[in-house]
Specification:
Transferase(Phosphotransferase), domain 1; disordered C terminus; 3 domains; binds adenosine-5'-diphosphate; 7-stranded antiparallel sheet; Phosphorylase Kinase, domain 1; alpha+beta; binds magnesium ion; 19 strands
């Protein structure tokens, strides 16, 4: 890699410009180190151009590169491993590897990858309105697909967080940042990693990873997906209470012992914000189970979120549902009487939109009807009562 690359000069002293001589099929790369896309624990993502095509480059923080501290050299080897892991992965929901070049001034790698539009964190925080249901479902399904692919290839991500999920312009989600990833020795569902410290971002970590000597399996990622779903639905950064409380115990050396707080309890303030009728709620509950064996695998999550996806109705803030002869249903929805809505929707209903026909199961009908009913109410659109029986139409 190194000997074929030569340094070029651009007008900007912050640019690193390299002649690639056909490496990875490209001639030139310019890394605009001052144009920062985002920052993480050990690197900056910056804008770059690869043969004039915009891309992203990940470079190590200078303080890490320059440090003599042996503790920090671990960051460098992790980054090298990240480059290797990403190089070998190809999946529509994993950020696309484009190449690795060497920074001529530090001799450290620079990771080139596709340029994404936004991080999930920023997308959720900057959206002025609720994220439409079908977008929530699509993003969630994308994440599960990526993680299932990782697990099939024996890789645990271990640091799934909204900063490490990127979105393109059409809200396709891709997983990035494999700096904490671990290649399991064999099938990750069988492997229990034993490490000395919790790998990822604390609020996304399951109880077994928060212990002094964490032991965990692929279900560490499933748990993090559960926290991500909670965040996607509520648009709030997760705010769990402490993971444990103390209880007096004269038999222990300290006179007290740590008692773990169940996840559903410590995350109650977020969970209550998920509507009771939301199709996400049972999935979130299962992902956040205290015992890892009770959580679904990533492959099972793909299936469950895929089902939500296949039945999610395209919803926009100006969409409205029209019903004919269904005033009883309207009244029940207005009262928030979910049971009556369920009963009235107990037959399959054809959904007609301008662009597509979707057949819904009963439970999904309830979810999408209520979601969109609330959507209509909040946007002030009235719901006319003239429409063909059993047919929902967008307007
Ligand atoms: N390919 C990319 N396109 C656009 N922004 C990116 C890209 N990669 C990373 N970022 C931004 O940079 C941030 C840090 O990148 P990340 O790889 O997570 O670094 P770290 O390992 O230091 O956490 C991300 O949260 C995101 O906002
Ligand atoms: Mg990161």
């Amino acid at each position: 890699m190194g000997n074929r690359i030569s340094l070029l000069l651009t007008g900007d002293p912050n640019d690193i410009s390299l002649n690639l001589s056909g490496l990875y099929g490209y001639q030139n790369v310019v890394i605009h180190t001052a144009q920062v896309l985002g920052s993480g624990a050990y690197g900056n993502a910056v804008k770059a151009t690869l043969d004039k095509n915009p891309c992203a480059a990940k470079i190590l923080h200078r303080v890490i590169v320059d440090s003599q501290d042996p503790g920090l050299s671990d960051f460098i080897s992790r980054f090298e491993q990240e480059c290797q892991i990403l190089r070998d992965l190809k999946h529509p929901n994993i950020v696309q590897f484009l190449g690795v070049v060497q920074d001529p001034s530090t001799n450290k790698p620079i990771l080139l990858m596709e340029l994404m539009k936004d991080s999930l964190t920023h997308f959720l925080e900057s959206s002025p309105t609720d994220i439409p249901y079908h977008v929530q479902v699509n993003i969630s399904h994308d994440i599960a697909l990526a993680v299932a692919h990782l697990h099939r290839n024996g890789i645990l991500h271990r640091d799934l967080s909204s900063n490490n999920i990127l979105l393109n312009a059409s809200h396709l989600a891709k997983v990035t940042d494999f700096g904490m990833s671990k290649i399991a020795a064999s099938n990750p569902s069988m492997t229990r990693s034993k490490v000395t410290q919790c790998p990822g971002t604390l609020v996304y970590m399951p109880p077994e990873a928060l212990r002094p000597q964490p032991r965990y399996s692929d279900k560490i990622d499933t748990f993090s997906i559960g926290v991500l779903l909670l965040q996607i639905v509520t648009r709030k950064f997760p705010a769990p209470t402490a993971a444990s409380t103390t209880r007096e115990d004269p038999s222990s050396a300290w006179g007290e012992i740590d008692v773990p707080i169940p996840e559903m309890e410590r995350r109650k303030s977020d969970i209550v914000k998920v509507p009771a009728y939301s199709g996400f709620l049972p999935v979130i509950r299962d992902c956040l189970k205290d015992k890892s064996k009770d959580r679904p695998t990533a492959a099972q999550l793909c299936q469950r979120l895929g089902q939500l996806k296949s039945t999610a109705v395209y919803s926009g803030s100006r969409s409205a549902l029209l019903f004919e002869g269904r005033t009883e249903l309207h009244d029940a929805a207005e009262r928030g009487d979910v049971k009556t809505v369920e009963r009235l929707l107990s037959t399959s209903v054809n959904i007609n939109s301008r662009t597509e026909d979707v057949r819904l199961s009963t439970s999904e009908c309830v979810v999408s009807f209520l979601t969109q009913f609330i959507d209509c109410c909040s946007t002030g659109l009235c719901i006319p009562t003239t429409c063909r029986k059993d047919t929902l139409l967008y307007c």
